[in-house]
Amino acid sequence: MNILMGTMEQGLIFAIMALGLYISYKILDFPDLTVDGSFPMGAAIAASLIVKGVNPVMALVAAFIGGALAGLVTGFIHVKYNITNLLAGIIVMTGLYSINLRIMGRSNIPLFGVEHIFSGKNKIMVILLLIVICKLVIDFLMRTKFGFALRALGDNETLVISLGLNEKVLKIQGLMIANGLVALSGGILAQYQGFADIAMGTGTIVTGLASIIIGESIMRKGRFLNITTIVIAGSIIYRLIISGALQIGFNASDLKLITAILTVGIMALKVKKVKARGGKLNVKNRGIKEIISVGARECKGSIQGTQLQPGR
Amino acid sequence: MSIIGSNGAGKSTLLNTIMGNIIPDEGSIDIDGRDITTLEKHKRNAFISKVYQNPSLGTSPSMTVFENLSMADNKGKKFGFSLGLNKKRKEYYRSVLAELNLGIEDQLDTEVGLLSGGQRQSLALIMATLNNPEVLLLDEHTAALDPKTSEIIMEKTREVVEKNNIPTLMITHNLTDAIKYGNRLIMLHQGRVVLDIRGDEKQGLTPEKLLKEFHKNHAEMTDNDLFSMG
Question: Which string of DSSP letters, residue by residue, matches A39-105?
Fold first, then answer.
């Protein structure tokens, strides 16, 4: 029961990250690898501020802002210098590694014995409160004119320009919100597990993608089940699978590989289904395969030597 | 105004220059006395609308018909944090769609990606003209449609343009349409206007006469090409 509860809690914390990734990846159609840097960045900011005695809630706000700034840089170099979206994310992620170390001052900050958002409270209630706030804000945002413009941007850039909107600014704003959420999730996780670590961001994008894909493949959008709910559920189920893998004897160090294989497996099933129906793969599906291959390689080791193909 | 000319004559370049995709090396573009030659692309899009040959360029496929129309209705205005759906105008949208007779009026909550090409293009046209743009550009906007839908859209285009008095430039390869619609016709060749026919004179045109002009210019071009190659 304890394990199950812990899995739920973790799933909900990571769900905030998955929601952020949902905005960049699904809504903006921008496979944003910045998240591998902005997730630990959120943890780094929150932990180092809390250690200094800053109010833990304020520390989370700072984490969100830090993540948003990371998204700003990725968006800016992408639209300003025409660097492809994948590469822009990788560049910023690489740079963030050093920045995160600067923020923390060392590679690990323990948070034991200091006051944080979970101190003396019921963990699951705190997490539920946070996730419900995030979900409602995103749901509302997507129903506003701004949200419509964001959704249209990932669909059809020409249309957004024809509405008289600056598509570049809009893309940057979308990435800021996405990375802000990812960093927020990192900041919450640091407080939940009691430490921030420089390596905790590795594979964030694949984890988030796995959650989104799992959610989407087992649930359908309906009147009472909107996409944010599906992503949150996907994140919990993903954690259940991972925790199951640990239970049957896998090492924690095997989890990244399991995640990568799991994601590819679900994607492959999807492709098979589409093909069986005689349909064609859409661009977004192709994007997923591409990003998994990059993400998986990145999980295995350093990103140096990774061959990227600019422009697809 | 209809614009005709062979491939490479400069028709699309002309529209692209007006849209701001291409900044001209010389000359200027004035709309209503306002110089927009170097105005940013998205800023001039606030008052210029374009319907493309490809139906998917004018709509957002993963959003519903209602959502698309609400967005188009807000063209040129701020996209802030007020609710995106324009519920007050729902009945108006329905009535405009009903006039098309393509059955879209009953599919307001359907994702646009599920509509047929003809339905999408009609929707794109309506979205482009919903807010009475100062200039409307049509780039072979019926070329990808079947003859019947094509005619519906051309008639709808005429109706909207005449009702709201929108200055319109239409590129077409269909000479019959070029003559039938609008009150001025120009033929482009190598980036220049080689034929400019207006009003009554235009009514007397036939596709045959136009074709003759077409070939005249085309022959010239081959000669020029030969010379330049030599």
Answer: HHHHHHHHHHHHHTT--HHHHHHHHHHHHHHHHHHHHHHHHHH---HHHHHHHHHHHHHHHHHHHHS
Domains observed in chain B: 2-229 (3.40.50.300)
First to last CA, chain B: 38
d(C-alpha A78, C-alpha B99), whole Å:
43
Q: Give Cα separations from A133 to A146, A307, B10 (angstroms).
A: 19, 40, 54
Alpha-carbon distance B65 to B58, whole Å? 12
CATH for A2-300 (1.20.140, 1.20.1530, 1.10.3470, 1.25.10)? 1.10.3470
Confidence (pTM): 0.84
- Nearest beta carbon to residue A164 from set B52, B61, B76: B76
pLDDT at A101 over 80: yes
Q: What is the pLDDT of residues A83-100, one digit of tens each?
A: 999 999 999 999 999 999
Q: How many CB atoms lie within 10 A of CB A125?
A: 10
Which chain A residues contact residue B52 at CB under 8 A? 158
Tell me which residue of A272, A273, A231, A30 sits closest to A139, measured CA to CA: A231
For an interface test with A, give the residue of B79, B81, B129, B136 to mutate (most A CBs within 10 A): B79
Cβ atoms of A60 and A186 closer than 8 Å: no
Of A292, A236, A262, residue with least CA distance to A15: A236
ipTM value of the model? 0.83
pLDDT in tens, chain B (230 residues): 888 887 877 888 888 888 888 888 888 888 887 888 888 888 888 888 889 888 888 899 989 999 999 998 888 888 888 888 888 888 888 888 888 878 888 888 888 988 888 888 889 998 988 888 888 999 888 888 888 888 888 888 888 888 888 989 999 888 888 888 888 888 888 888 888 888 777 777 777 777 787 777 666 655 555 554 43
B42, B51, B83, best to mutate vs chain A, most A CBs in 10 Å: B42
Coil/strand/helix, residue B145 = coil
The partner residue sitting opposite B42, judged by closest CB among A147, A152, A164, is: A164
Q: What is the mean pLDDT of residues A69-78?
A: 97
What is the DSSP pairing of strand B184-189 with strand B30-31? unpaired
From A26, A10, A5, A8, select the one nearest A228 (Cα to Cα). A26
A103: nearest Cα among A55, A70, A57, A72: A70
